[in-house]
Amino acid sequence: MIFVGGLPFSTDPSSQGSDTLSALMEHPFLVSVSNSLKAIPVRNFSVKEESTQERATKTKWVYAFQREYATVDPALVDFVGTDEATTCVGLVIRNRKNGMTSVAHMDSPDIVDMGLSQMLLLVVDHNLDAELEVHLVGGFEDVSPNFLKSCTGSESDAKLEGYSYPLCAKIFETLCTRREKFHIQTAFILGHNTRRDSEGNAFPIFNGLAVETSTGSVIPASFDGARCPDEIVRRIRVTASYEDCSWNGKLLDTYDTRTDQFRIASCCWTSRQRHTALTLRRLTDSEILLTCSTSPSAEGPDFVDNLRRQCEYLIKYPDWIETFPLKQPRVFERTSDGEWKRC
């Protein structure tokens, strides 16, 4: 059940997620919020830029990579967020009463149903009457809106409608069918999150978000230099999860809400992934973009560099057991100055 602007948002039980999505994109309340969000400058969370004095009272944040989610307690964490989203969507669910906040980096309609259940587990805490705020930032018009209107059923089945649109439609379709009370506060997606250059090429306006857990405020954000801990291993784990059937339909769980620790569960990579890494290492930057991205022209400047670092790690450590001895998780705890230390 969903609400917009404090009022119930009625949907036809037989309607598809795309119908709900279209109506919400034109809702005056959400249009106004999107216009206001455009005026907010992007906050860059960067460890390198903090002075000694700032480190003494350092802001504590938790970062979620693609296909990860994290549920945080406002008593332990100041901000939680994600970035690097082009056709992906950053989804926020926050309990108004206790401030418990979950953020996910959704990258496929296939993980929405189970992913929402994972996010809600600690946010709702068995209270179906909880008032839940929902924010979406990310996804853009990676195909022309005129093309969407002219799509036939067969074309849609072939996924010619792009990546962002079916993901956003699935999220709202699932929210509508669940029993919890969702208050849609932000829908900065698709047309609202699209800018075009002089040649008409589309790009996302914002690629990331952060939630201030004490207030629930959502701001555009970048975590360049602050995607920690264990950045490379977590990036590789995202890729490896696609070949691991135990993760089918699920978001990756890396953060322990109660202890404020990261616990990166073991994952295995195959000789095929090492072969892919060797192949990618021989490609040019533009070839890597075209091969590995759903939106090559919209990726950030460090997209290729991050992929190359992953490739070098896989080539250096072809056996995953070197990274996860005895299949044990890699555990990181927060130090007194806010850094992360391997346990």
Folded structure, characterized:
The protein has helices at 17-25, 28-37, 52-56, 112-124, 145-150, 153-157, 164-177, 231-241, 271-281, 285-292, 303-316, and strands at residues 2-4, 7-8, 43-44, 61-63, 68-72, 79-82, 89-95, 101-106, 131-138, 181-188, 194-196, 202-204, 209-212, 218-222, 252-253, 255-256, 261-264, 330-334, 340-342. Strand 18 and strand 19 (340-342) form a beta hairpin. Mean pLDDT is 90; it is low at 52-56 and 145-160. It has a domain at 2-228: 2-Layer Sandwich (60s Ribosomal Protein L30, Chain: A), CATH 3.30.1330.200. The chain is 31% helix and 23% strand. InterPro entries: NTAN1. It comes from Juglans regia (English walnut).
Question: What's this entry about, in short?
Answer:
By secondary structure, the chain is of the alpha/beta class. The chain is built from 11 helices and 19 strands.
Major sheet: arrangement of strands = 2-1-10-9-7-8-5-15
Strand tally, please? Answer: 19
State mean pLDDT (0 to 100 scale).
90
Under CATH, the topology of the domain at 2-228 can be stated as 60s Ribosomal Protein L30, Chain: A
How much helix is in the residues?
25-40%
**Low-pLDDT segments:** 52-56, 145-160
The geometry reads as globular
Residues in β-strands, percent: 15-25%
Q: Output the helix-strand order.
A: EEHHEHEEEEEHEHHHEEEEEHEEEHHHEE
Q: Cα-atom Rg, whole angstroms?
A: 20 Å
CATH class of the domain at 2-228: Alpha Beta
Protein name: Protein N-terminal asparagine amidohydrolase isoform X1
GO molecular function: protein-N-terminal asparagine amidohydrolase activity
Pfam families: N_Asn_amidohyd (PF14736)
InterPro entries: NTAN1
